[in-house]
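Colleagues,

For the teaching module next term, I've prepared a clean inverse folding example: a structure given as tokens, and then the sequence designed for it. I'd like students to try predicting residues themselves before seeing the answer, so please don't circulate the second half yet.
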């Protein structure tokens, strides 16, 4: 379930007397989906009713929605029926009453309630109310009335649920062709969803039943594999085999390739390799994919073997798409092995053989880097110039310009040659990691760097809650955080120009909605912030989010608050509700096992995983963890690397490459994700320090020497 981004808004609403009858602890319990949330809300309602307070209707709405969420439909109906709420909440009251009627089996009453919701709904609620009214009408046997509602809903938002429901409506009104199309779409595009199984059964019941093709079975298999449903992917392959659709050698090779992928995931390595051998006997396209899969698998065990396989693939299948990827990996593996002369040759060959590859700019960068490591500086600069000239919009341009200036310095050139190059990096990409490095290099030369940003961030002026956010505020006050989030998101989606975006971002910052403000800025204010360097736009990109909590916890654990903000910006973009595929949660993206380990070190009870969405807890755990990483690694680059990839990986990288200066060390971090992570965190850290640090003090310096980590210290 999605969580409201509005912890900041919640703090604003509950900081004074305007919070209404709900206590702050009740609203916090609701926001975190704590087990006692409903009990707390019921207690508040009873107290309100006893004192005849004006907020009984709003509390009844909250208690009703919580009862509905727990499956207590009759309690929900009792609380929602007859409740009186303010105008902004009325369509939501009708909507949730419709939900209660529907799940109680009264489809006609549900349809009527959803209709009332639809009459007064804001854009954020309209699609939901329209869809639910269509479903209720369909359940009430009124297919003709339901069909146009579900047609519009599924066309606008073709989710698996809506496609399946539209299929039902189409079938009920005699649109057999449309019904088959929707059922097929559900089965193929969402194979792991429960509706997919129902869709297949519904297709089988049609007369005559449509049959899936070979390509469609393989599409379902890949979809199931991507969803982590390995056993179901194997079952799909068995269904395919039983249908005897793979009639030609080409078909059998395609099936063998997909079967190999599934078997590898299932841990059946020997059987998978047998299938790969069959796939390699197929046509060039399939054989090349099989060879590429074999080579990628080898990367997990032995880089030298993987390189040999990539070389063979490129030679055997020069015209296939996999050949370009293989050619790139040959050079990349040369870099990883420290074979820089081979890397120059490999990437030169790649550029010649695969001129249409989207990796051309990256290949130029790695070839230049290999020249740098060989101390072939004129050659490196020639390649870097080619990168900038051929791909002027590439994200690699700032680093190409930095390393061109740096190569002059490494060759012994004076400040008259190197300083202009460093200055160009700062003025051209002031928010980048390479601007930070260039700033440090200029200071080494005794020169004052140009100001990347002449002014520090300054929030746009304004006051009060803008009309566009009033309904969102009312929903948050009522504890309907999911609805409040959708209301804000719907309003921000309708922003059309930078001036409107600026006003909206300013209002969101004032409400403490830092994640929403940052999202608005990222979509509409990039040019104003990093082109015009406008301080009002910068404020949404670099807010001092949750400032009291960050400052307090940073002080408690003796870590820089600017490092906390830099990590927070990279991890969650200031959105407390974010959860990753790895189950990292909250502002600082703490995973439950790490949270348990931190709680143990702090001698406190283990938190419920849901509590990791709490900004206060996330900031506290994140600040403590960063403080421990800084104690062990003594450099923000290493602390960031450890935060992203784990302390043991960071220790290994320092052991292998720690003798290099920082700029080269970071470029040789083997994980692409971690390299980018470290670069952004360092850039953001020093921007935060420059923007908000002690202006009277000495400008913060970035150490360009990689320290040796302490033997003891945090390991998780």
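(Answer key — instructors only)
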């Amino acid at each position: 379930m999605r969580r409201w981004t509005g912890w900041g808004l919640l703090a604003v609403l509950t900081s004074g007397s305007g919070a209404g009858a709900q206590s702050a602890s009740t609203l916090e319990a609701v926001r975190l989906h704590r087990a006692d949330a409903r009990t707390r809300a019921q207690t508040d309602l009873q107290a309100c009713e006893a004192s005849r307070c004006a907020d009984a209707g709003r509390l009844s709405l909250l208690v009703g929605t919580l009862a509905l969420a727990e499956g207590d439909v009759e309690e929900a109906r009792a609380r929602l029926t007859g409740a009186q709420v303010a105008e902004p909440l009325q369509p939501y009251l009708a909507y949730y009453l419709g939900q209660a009627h529907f799940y109680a089996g009264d489809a006609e009453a549900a349809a009527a309630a959803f209709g009332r919701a639809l009459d007064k709904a804001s854009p954020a609620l309209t699609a939901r109310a329209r869809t639910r009214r269509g479903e209720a009408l369909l359940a009430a046997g009124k297919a003709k009335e339901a069909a146009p509602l579900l047609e519009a809903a599924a066309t606008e938002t073709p989710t698996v649920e809506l496609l399946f429901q539209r299929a039902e409506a189409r079938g009920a009104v005699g649109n057999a062709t449309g019904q088959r199309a929707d059922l097929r779409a559900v089965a193929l595009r969402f194979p792991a969803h429960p509706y997919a199984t129902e869709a297949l059964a519904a297709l089988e019941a049609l007369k005559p039943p449509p049959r899936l093709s070979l390509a469609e079975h393989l599409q379902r298999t890949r979809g199931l594999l991507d969803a982590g449903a390995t056993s179901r992917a194997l079952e799909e392959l068995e269904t395919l085999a039983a249908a005897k659709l793979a009639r030609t050698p080409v078909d059998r090779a395609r099936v063998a390739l997909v079967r190999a992928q599934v078997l590898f995931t299932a841990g059946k390595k020997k059987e998978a390799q047998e299938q790969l051998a069959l796939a390699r006997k197929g046509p060039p396209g399939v054989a090349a994919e099989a060879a590429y899969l074999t080579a990628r698998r080898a990367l997990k065990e032995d880089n030298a073997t993987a390189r040999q396989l990539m070389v063979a693939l490129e030679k055997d299948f020069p015209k296939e798409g996999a050949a370009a990827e293989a050619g790139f990996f040959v050079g990349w593996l040369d870099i990883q092995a420290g074979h820089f002369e081979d890397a120059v040759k490999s990437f030169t060959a790649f550029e010649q053989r695969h001129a249409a590859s989207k990796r051309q700019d990256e290949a130029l960068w790695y070839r230049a880097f290999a020249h740098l490591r060989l101390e072939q500086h004129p050659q490196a600069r020639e390649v870097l110039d080619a990168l900038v000239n051929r791909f002027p919009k590439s994200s690699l341009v700032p680093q190409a310009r930095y390393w061109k200036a740096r190569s002059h310095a490494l060759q012994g050139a004076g400040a008259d040659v190197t300083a202009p190059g460093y200055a160009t990096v700062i003025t051209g990409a002031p928010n980048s990691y390479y601007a930070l490095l260039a700033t440090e290099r200029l200071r080494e030369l005794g020169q004052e760097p140009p100001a990347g940003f002449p002014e520090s961030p300054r929030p746009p002026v304004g006051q009060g809650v803008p009309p566009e956010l009033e309904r969102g505020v009312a929903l948050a006050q009522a504890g309907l955080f999911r609805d409040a989030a959708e209301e804000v998101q719907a309003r921000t989606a309708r922003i059309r120009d930078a001036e409107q975006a600026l006003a909206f971002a300013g209002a969101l910052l004032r409400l403490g909605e830092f994640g929403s403000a940052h999202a608005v800025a990222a979509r509409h204010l990039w040019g104003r912030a990093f082109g015009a360097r406008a301080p009002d736009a910068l404020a949404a990109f670099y807010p001092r989010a949750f400032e009291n909590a960050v400052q307090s916890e940073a002080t408690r654990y003796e870590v820089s608050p600017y490092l906390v903000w830099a990590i927070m910006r990279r991890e969650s973009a200031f959105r407390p509700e974010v959860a990753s595929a790895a189950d990292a949660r909250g502002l600082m993206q703490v995973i439950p096992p790490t949270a348990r380990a931190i709680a143990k070190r702090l001698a406190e009870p283990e938190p419920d995983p849901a509590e990791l969405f709490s900004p206060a807890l996330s900031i506290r755990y994140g600040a403590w963890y960063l403080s421990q990483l800084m104690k062990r690694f003594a450099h923000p680059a290493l602390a960031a690397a450890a935060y992203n990839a784990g302390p043991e990986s960071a220790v290994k990288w320092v052991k292998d490459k720690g003798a290099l200066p920082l700029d080269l060390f970071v470029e040789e971090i083997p994980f692409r994700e971690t390299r980018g992570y470290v670069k952004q965190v360092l850039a953001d850290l020093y921007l935060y320090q420059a923007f908000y640090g002690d202006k009277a003090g000495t400008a913060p310096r970035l150490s360009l020497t990689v320290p040796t980590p302490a033997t003891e210290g945090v390991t998780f």
